[in-house]
Specification:
By secondary structure, this protein is of the alpha/beta class. The chain has helices at 2-14, 37-56, 60-73, 235-247, 282-296, 326-339, 344-352, 398-410, 430-435, 459-474, and strands at 77-78, 93-98, 102-107, 117-123, 128-139, 142-150, 163-170, 176-181, 220-222, 257-263, 268-270, 276-279, 304-310, 355-359, 362-363, 385-388, 415-418, 439-444, 446-447, 455-458. The radius of gyration is 24 Å and the shape is globular.
């Protein structure tokens, strides 16, 4: 006991050495140290594919579009209830879409769906700024957009950075106009402006959260004078004429628009060693992308496997989120298609034997600001995928955690754990799956600068998450 106390004291004084001691089964060390040059090349190539995908998939709508293109290129076919049951053979690949904002890829396994399935669930919405319904404002010679916020952001981080617009406008005639402005290098961008230090004395007492208030998040979208064209009473009238001419969008069409204001900075490597990736939307399109890559590399699984990416985790579920009955309906259709009949008991029995990884990013240790988090409990960049334990009532049953440990360890996947001290931490949508009587655990990757316009992740963590997902999909009972 004396030696244990001495070890604890030494470990506290020297940082994290305690995690490598025999007191802890988990070897807390960098995953980079456990791969050879060949695997490092794979890690770097995987990260390049990730950067290319997330550069395009800047909202849930765009993720679904890119995800469908990826699925079709990998041999997945569109599922409809009209699919012939004879096509639902083990190894057959399918995808389904809910309202353009939710997508699921799945592979039929050797076992009947009524005997359980394996799911990797992610969400594909990210914190952002959105148009209000009546959004255009004429302000002192400029036109700005009156906005609202989706998810938790620090407002000041969205000032003085290039912003773009993506989304859709739905017209009363049933047509949809897709909008993408600012992603091409030749496009104009939007900007939320700030005060110069010469004139901000009256604002310096604001708290950090109120440096820029939510109602002040108004990007400039136009400013051309109108003096020589009297038909335009205000700058916003000229802007509406441009929208009508270039996109066929009229003022009233903005009432039924799903337009998002997003950063247009490109994903980039961080550090001269190129070990890290900075990109917008890694919470949580990073793990969603990895789930697609992993399922695409699965052959014929024992149980049917699903990569299920939902919307609206950052706010509330709605009909494209995890609480929607859409997924239940899909599984009911698959049971009917593969067995020839369906009843509610078959669905309940399937779920009781199902296993789920709910995957999201988490707050890795910040090298500059480590103190808010418990350094003994916090995940670190580059130390592998993260198994997250949220505390009593919000974490996996011990037997399922043991199962997942075995799956990862048998596959040689590097993993770490993460939990919070009281008063800190985020939420999880795992509760929906747990409420369906499934075995569920939260996993993901750690990121730094979470919910900012430019989040930071480690390439090796993305790679280890891919390995963990693939091992989970391929694991037998």
């Amino acid at each position: 006991m004396k030696k244990v106390r001495q070890l604890l004291i030494i470990s506290i004084l020297t940082g994290f050495a305690i995690f490598a001691s025999p007191l802890f089964a988990q070897n807390f060390s960098s995953a980079w140290l456990e791969i050879d040059q060949q695997e490092q090349t794979q890690v770097m190539a995987f990260a390049e594919d990730f950067k290319s995908f997330i550069a395009r998939a800047r909202s849930e709508l765009w993720f679904v579009r890119e995800g469908v293109a990826f699925a079709e290129a990998e041999g997945f076919q569109l599922w409809t209830p009209a699919v012939d049951a004879a096509a639902m053979t083990p190894g057959s690949r399918w995808y389904a879409v809910n309202r353009d904002r939710t997508v699921v890829l799945f592979i039929i396994g050797n076992e009947a769906i009524s005997e359980g399935i394996r799911i990797v669930n992610t969400h594909i919405d990210s914190p952002r700024i959105e148009f209000k319904t009546i959004s255009l404002r004429d302000r002192n010679g400029a036109v700005t957009i009156d906005t609202q916020v989706h998810g938790g952001i620090k407002n000041y981080q969205w000032v003085n950075i290039p912003l773009g617009i993506i989304g859709r406008v739905d017209k009363t005639d049933g047509s949809t106009i897709w909008v993408e402005i600012g992603l091409d290098e030749n496009d104009p961008v939007l900007l939320i402006t700030d005060l110069a230090p010469h004139v901000d004395a009256d604002y310096r007492d604001r708290s950090q959260r109120d440096v820029i208030r939510t109602e002040e998040l108004e990007p400039i979208i136009a400013s051309l004078p109108v003096d020589n064209e009297p038909q335009f009473a205000m700058p916003s009238d000229r802007l509406l004429a441009i929208l009508d001419d270039q996109y066929g969008i009229e003022a009233d069409d903005l009432l039924s628009a799903d337009l998002q204001i997003i950063p247009v900075t490109r994903p980039r490597d961080v550090g001269l060693d190129r070990a890290l990736v900075a990109a917008y939307g890694q919470d949580d399109r990073a793990t969603a992308y990895v789930s697609l890559r992993a399922i695409a590399d699965v052959g014929v699984p024992e149980q049917s496997v699903f990569a299920y990416a939902v919307n609206n985790e950052e706010t509330s579920s709605w009909n494209t989120g995890v609480n929607s009955e859409w997924f239940n309906s899909l599984i009911a259709e698959l049971i009917a298609a593969t067995s020839g009949s369906f009843n509610d008991l078959a669905l309940r029995r399937s779920y009781a034997q199902s296993k789920v990884l709910v995957s999201d990013t988490t707050t890795a240790l910040n090298p500059i600001f480590p103190s808010p988090q418990n350094q003994m409990l916090t995940s670190r960049l580059g130390y592998g995928l993260v198994v997250k334990e949220y505390g009593a009532g919000r974490e996996a049953n011990s037997e399922f955690f043991a199962h997942i440990r075995g799956v990862f360890d048998d596959a040689g996947v590097k993993w770490q754990t993460h939990s919070y001290d009281a008063g800190y931490g985020g939420g999880t949508i795992a509760a929906w799956f747990a409420g369906q009587n499934m075995d569920v655990i939260d996993v993901g990757i750690g990121i730094v600068s979470m919910h900012s316009p430019y989040e930071l992740s480690s390439k090796i963590d993305l790679w280890e998450l891919y390995g963990g997902f693939k091992a989970f999909y391929e694991a037998g009972e």
